[in-house]
């Protein structure tokens, strides 16, 4: 039996999993499956769907009894949408649920979301009008170490709904995916998940050990949200009828605070993706965790599942020997390492704006460490920290008019947080693993094609037929024997997850621009 750990964070995960399995074996007839997927997050569910298409019997174990209602990842990149395209109907459903591009194409920097100065705005889709289509415990129990910083920053994630705020932002023509808020009361990033329904998640930093999640009571969170919106608490919580000014329709309820969770921003990659003789494979959060800057976390996990699924299917169907499974680590771990480095670089770019205002998260963290280490009476250290944070916010608010030109320079020059990374998204090239590079010159680039240097990030994707790379997406004409076009097909649809093979394009010698599509097995016989 293979155990695929798909990265859901839970207390004593392996112990819980084995306890569940033990109870099942004692209460029902034994269930024999070749693969067990632990964790029904995005990575685990995609892996399950792909295994089903390959005809692999498996079981998915999940500790939660219901779907999470607390939004987390919210950006699906191009390569992940290509993976979804291979799962019947999924890509179309995701596209149907996506908001109009105009509502999430920008990052807005402001004093408050619905009031105050607009400090700047970055359009991440210039010229486009439509969109294109804890794991730490797990690793510890397996004896797998990780590399990278465990806590770059601590944040509280506050999930709330306020239809009136969403309507206000749309009416003021301030739609955005992210709102970076800087004022005397709060510094926060607010993620707009659905402006039309008014669903948001506010990310607010805090500094342990002097501050803790227990400080963020419902009353405190409501006030923080009002401060971020630029409204009074009474205005935020006014009845829905008054807020909507007579409007009616779905989602017209008033303000609601749904949930509050703490999390630590980290950038870690497991030293090994395979354990117990490749019978346990790590994917998703079990294998890597990144800062959210760039949106690589969930996307990298889903692409892990895509890589792992066909290898499991090939081995279990007897199309390849078990050594194929070891190539999962040699192909996917370098991608995670590159994406971790890229995410850290993105995060450093993200803090350039607050640094320009005198709000440096590292300086605030240092104040917290010094205040907590000093031999001070109980409560004094916390008072010093909060006084320093309040003073910093006050100074930043005072110098906003003086620093606006500097902020505009940062934003217009592309030195702030970015959203699109075409080369890193689509230009992954596996330099080793389940590829035969004989006679194919290596590109010399990093496996993910990414770099941590500011000048090389965000470069365009250049389609290539290099072995180990993604098959370029293009439209192909299918011609009849008479040379007339019969139908059009997409190159991506030549690679299908419902069978273990690949349609290969072969150039017909002597016929320029003519190709034959043939079936070719991509697996050697099992030995």
UniProtKB/TrEMBL annotation:
It comes from the Eukaryota. Residues 440-462 are annotated as: Disordered. This is FAD-binding domain-containing protein. Gene3D superfamilies: 3.40.30.120, D-Amino Acid Oxidase, subunit A, domain 2, FAD/NAD(P)-binding domain. It holds the Pfam family FAD_binding_3. Keywords: FAD, Flavoprotein. Residues 33-117, 256-340 form the FAD-binding domain. Residues 441-456 have a biased composition (Low complexity).
């Amino acid at each position: 039996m293979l155990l695929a750990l798909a990265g859901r964070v839970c207390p004593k995960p392996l112990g819980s999993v084995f306890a569940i399995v033990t109870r099942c074996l004692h209460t029902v007839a034994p269930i024999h499956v070749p693969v067990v997927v632990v964790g029904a997050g995005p990575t685990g569910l995609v892996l399950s769907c792909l295994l089903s298409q390959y005809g692999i019997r498996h079981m998915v174990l999940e500790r939660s009894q219901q779907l999470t209602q607390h939004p987390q990842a919210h950006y699906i990149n191009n390569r992940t949408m290509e993976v979804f395209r291979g799962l019947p109907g999924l890509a179309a459903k995701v596209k149907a649920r996506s908001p109009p591009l105009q509502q999430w194409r920008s990052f807005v920097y402001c004093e408050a979301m619905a009031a105050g100065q607009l400090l700047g705005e970055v359009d991440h889709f210039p010229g486009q009008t439509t969109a294109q289509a804890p794991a730490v415990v797990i690793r510890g129990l397996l004896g797998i170490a990780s590399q990278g910083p465990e806590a770059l920053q601590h944040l509280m994630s506050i999930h709330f709904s306020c239809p009136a705020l969403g309507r206000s932002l749309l009416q003021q023509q301030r739609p955005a995916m992210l709102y970076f808020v800087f004022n005397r009361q709060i510094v926060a990033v607010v993620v707009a998940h659905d402006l039309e329904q008014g669903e948001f998640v506010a990310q607010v930093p805090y500094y342990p050990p002097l501050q803790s999640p227990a400080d963020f009571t419902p009353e405190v969170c409501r006030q923080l949200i009002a401060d971020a919106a630029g409204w009074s608490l009474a205005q935020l919580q006014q009845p829905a009828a008054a807020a909507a000014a007579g409007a009616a329709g779905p989602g017209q309820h008033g303000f609601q605070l749904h949930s509050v969770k703490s999390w630590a921003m980290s950038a870690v990659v497991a030293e090994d993706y395979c354990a117990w003789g490749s019978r346990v494979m790590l994917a998703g959060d079990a294998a890597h965790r990144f800062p959210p800057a760039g949106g690589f976390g969930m996307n990298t996990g889903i692409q892990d599942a895509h890589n792992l699924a066909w290898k499991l299917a090939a081995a279990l169907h007897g199309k390849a020997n078990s050594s194929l499974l070891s190539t999962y680590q040699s192909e996917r771990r370098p991608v995670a390492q590159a994406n971790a480095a890229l995410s850290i670089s993105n995060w450093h770019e993200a803090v350039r704006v607050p640094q320009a205002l005198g709000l440096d998260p590292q300086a605030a963290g240092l104040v917290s460490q010094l205040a907590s280490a000093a031999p001070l009476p109980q409560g004094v250290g916390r008072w010093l920290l909060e006084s320093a944070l309040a003073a910093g916010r006050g100074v930043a608010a005072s110098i906003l008019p003086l620093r606006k030109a500097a902020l505009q320079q940062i934003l217009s020059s592309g030195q702030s947080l970015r959203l699109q990374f075409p080369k890193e998204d689509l230009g992954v090239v596996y330099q080793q693993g389940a590829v035969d590079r004989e006679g194919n010159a290596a590109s010399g680039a990093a496996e993910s094609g990414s770099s941590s240097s500011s000048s090389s990030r965000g470069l365009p994707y250049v389609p290539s037929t290099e072995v180990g790379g993604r098959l370029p997406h293009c439209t192909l004409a299918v011609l009849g024997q008479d040379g007339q076009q019969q139908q059009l097909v997409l190159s991506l649809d030549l690679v299908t997850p419902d069978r273990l093979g690949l349609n290969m394009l072969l150039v017909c010698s002597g016929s320029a621009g003519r190709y034959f599509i043939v079936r070719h097995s991509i697996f050697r016989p099992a030995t």
